[in-house]
Amino acid sequence: MMNKPQPRTESPVVHTVALVIIAFAVVLFLLVQARFILICLAVAIMLFSLTSDAINFIARARIGVLRIPNWLATVTAVVLISTALIVLTSLILSQVNTILSTTLAYAERVPQAVASLFAWLGPEAETAIFNAVSSVNVSGYLRSAAGQAGGLMQGTVLVILFVGFLFSERIWFGTKLTNLLKNEARAEEVSMIISSIMHRVNYYLLVKTVISVVTGAMTWVVAELFGLDLALAIGIMTFILNYIPNIGSIVATVAAALMAYVQLGDPAITAGLFLALAVIQFVNGNIIDPILMGRTLRLSTFGIIVSLAFWAALWGIAGMFLAVPIMVGIMIACSHVEGLRPVAILLSREGLPDTDSESRITLFGKRGKAAK
């Protein structure tokens, strides 16, 4: 009597892979659909992280026998953050309008200016490039970009609201974390991991801000010396783009040189401006930045490029600004979870994601195992 064929049973590995693919697709869908809210939330969390330590320091300070109440320090911080965000947003929007109006005035000269750069290839190549650039609707792209920048004020208001609610909830965070994990020891470990992420992201943002301010100011001075109409706008653009690692400085330098060539039409002066800006970017980005940053970040350069491409595809330009802070958080979190530690090793520069002086906390592993 022949045995009946047994029904095929799918491997548990297949089920796991299928579930991972489905979960990843769902997460990507949610990241794209809710990107405006998520971007605002990410910015609010970074601002909250940057100022929470300062608020604690102010709250502990004494003026004679008087002590500053925690609520007063919190309200003061929220007011200062709100004022700074509104002023910065207004400045950016005003410069966007300046760039738009000035660039539209130069729009007719752009095709001829760009084509003349390739005159050494021959008249046929110059004509082809002129026709190709002329077919680009520069004014349409600029107006579209200006429309997107108009939504910046809405995002600023939402960020202010998020920051305010985060500050109002921060005194209960430890209690919520303990009740959520139902284990005080594990809650303390998670709290230390979050503190490590906040410390490194804060230091990265502070160093990057100092370098970006210095680079933007030097760029503005150089542009003024060369007599460019958009000197201030170029300086602000350089300041903003410097937050995008590796790519931002290149884009800022090339864009400034192109603006100079369109306005001045002199290749020698444009080359001099390009060389001066390139030296500024090189010194600040490759000498001063690594000295100040030290060993705080050990991110893989290839990983940064992949992260930039991934978050740019999901969240556009805002994703490129947030790519490195998100990558830092993922690397630190994975380095403290035994099963995900290989991911942290891949994201780190030298395969050594642990840079804290204290011993590494490992959740759910042998070392640092949370008490049951």
String of helices and strands:
HHEEHHHHHHHHHHHHH
Mind telling me the C-alpha Rg? 26 Å
Which strand-content bin applies to the residues? Answer: under 5%
- When the domains are counted, the total is 2
- The N- to C-terminal Cα distance equals 55 Å
> Helical amount among residues, as a percent range?
over 70%
Rough outline: globular
Low-pLDDT parts are: 355-372
Largest sheet report: 2 strands, antiparallel
- Number of DSSP helices? 15
Coarse structural class: mainly alpha
The total strand number stands at 2
* Average of pLDDT: 78
Biggest sheet: strands side by side, in what order?
Answer: 1-2
Structure description:
With 372 residues, the protein is mainly alpha-helical. The protein folds into 2 domains: 33-181, no CATH class; 183-372, no CATH class. Helices cover 76% and strands 1% of the residues. The protein contains 15 helices and 2 strands. The chain has helices at 12-33, 35-60, 70-106, 110-116, 123-134, 138-150, 152-169, 173-181, 184-225, 231-241, 247-264, 267-293, 301-315, 317-335, 341-347, and strands spanning 62-63, 66-67. A two-stranded antiparallel ribbon has the order 1-2. Strand 1 and strand 2 form a beta hairpin. Helix 3 runs antiparallel to helix 6, helix 13 crosses helix 14 and helix 14 (317-335) packs across helix 15 (341-347). The N and C termini lie far apart (55 Å). The relative contact order is 0.08. The model is unreliable at 355-372 (pLDDT under 50).
